[in-house]
């Protein structure tokens, strides 16, 4: 056998892609300590922490309005499954963290969806999980957005806007198929 045949099979790592945006980035450079466009390995037993305290957080955001530890991400495997996931926990006592439409208070945590937008203050982070099979580590790859992520993704507003004088809870045709009605009826 050749040395190529004897090498261990290369496994792919789960990669968390995170695209960061803040309206004042050009002036204040709050993401200057983040390592963009280069994949970084993180051991599976470590918690990835994001915040302003560089002695505790590997992902450092240079902004006095950001908490010492803003949020953390824990890599794990679902019970009785080969699927790997991330759990996001709000570590800020002052600032709520929003993951898509779910608001997290201090120490609240949820599973990170495969693609979602994380918001706190004026910060917007698009998180996308790329599946892999490595169990001992995961990777992160950070990107910088030049335009607001919410604007770029053309996401609908958080609240549905009802038509004039029609409220879904009061609609008599709830659960029925739509019926065409003459305006004069």
Task: Report a brief summary of the structure.
The chain contains three helices and twelve strands, in the order H-E-H-E-E-E-E-E-E-E-E-E-E-E-H. It is mainly beta and 185 residues long.
Describe it.
This is TRAF-interacting protein with FHA domain-containing protein A. By secondary structure, the chain is mainly β. The model is unreliable at 154-163 and 165-176 (pLDDT under 50). Strands 2-12-1-11-10-7-8 form a 7-stranded mixed sheet, with no helix packed on it. The longest helix is centred in the N-terminal third of the chain and has 4 residues, at 3-6. The chain has a single domain (13-149), classed as Tumour Suppressor Smad4, CATH 2.60.200.20. It contains 3 helices and 12 strands; from the N terminus they run αβαβββββββββββα. It starts with a helix and ends in a 33-residue tail after the last helix. β7 (97-99) and β8 form a beta hairpin. Helix content is 6%, strand content 34%. The protein is globular and about 55 Å long.
Can you lay out the helices and strands and say which pair or pack?
Layout: H1 3-6, E1 15-21, H2 25-28, E2 40-43, E3 47-51, E4 59-60, E5 71-77, E6 84-90, E7 97-99, E8 102-104, E9 109-111, E10 115-120, E11 123-130, E12 137-144, H3 149-152
Parallel strand pairs: 1-12, 3-4
Antiparallel strand pairs: 1-11, 2-12, 3-5, 5-6, 6-9, 7-8, 7-10, 10-11
InterPro entries: FHA_dom (IPR000253), SMAD_FHA_dom_sf (IPR008984), TIFA (IPR033621)
Subcellular location: Cytoplasm
Family: Belongs to the TIFA family.
């Amino acid at each position: 056998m050749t040395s190529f045949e004897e090498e261990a099979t290369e496994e792919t790592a789960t990669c968390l892609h995170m695209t960061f945006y803040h309206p004042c980035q050009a002036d204040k450079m709050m993401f200057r300590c983040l390592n963009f466009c280069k994949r970084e390995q993180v051991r599976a037993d470590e918690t990835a922490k994001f915040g302003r305290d560089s002695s505790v957080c590997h992902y450092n955001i240079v902004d006095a309005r950001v908490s010492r530890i803003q949020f953390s991400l824990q890599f794990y495997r679902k019970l009785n499954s080969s699927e790997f996931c991330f759990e996001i926990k709000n570590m800020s006592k002052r600032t709520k963290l929003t993951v898509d439409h779910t608001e997290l208070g201090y120490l609240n945590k949820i599973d990170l969806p495969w693609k979602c937008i994380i918001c706190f203050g004026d910060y917007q982070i698009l998180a996308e999980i790329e599946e892999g099979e490595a169990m001992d580590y995961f990777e992160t790859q950070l990107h910088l957005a030049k335009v607001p992520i919410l604007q770029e993704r053309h996401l609908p507003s958080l609240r549905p806007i009802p038509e004039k004088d029609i409220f879904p809870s009061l609609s008599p045709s709830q659960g029925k198929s739509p019926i065409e009605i003459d305006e004069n009826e």
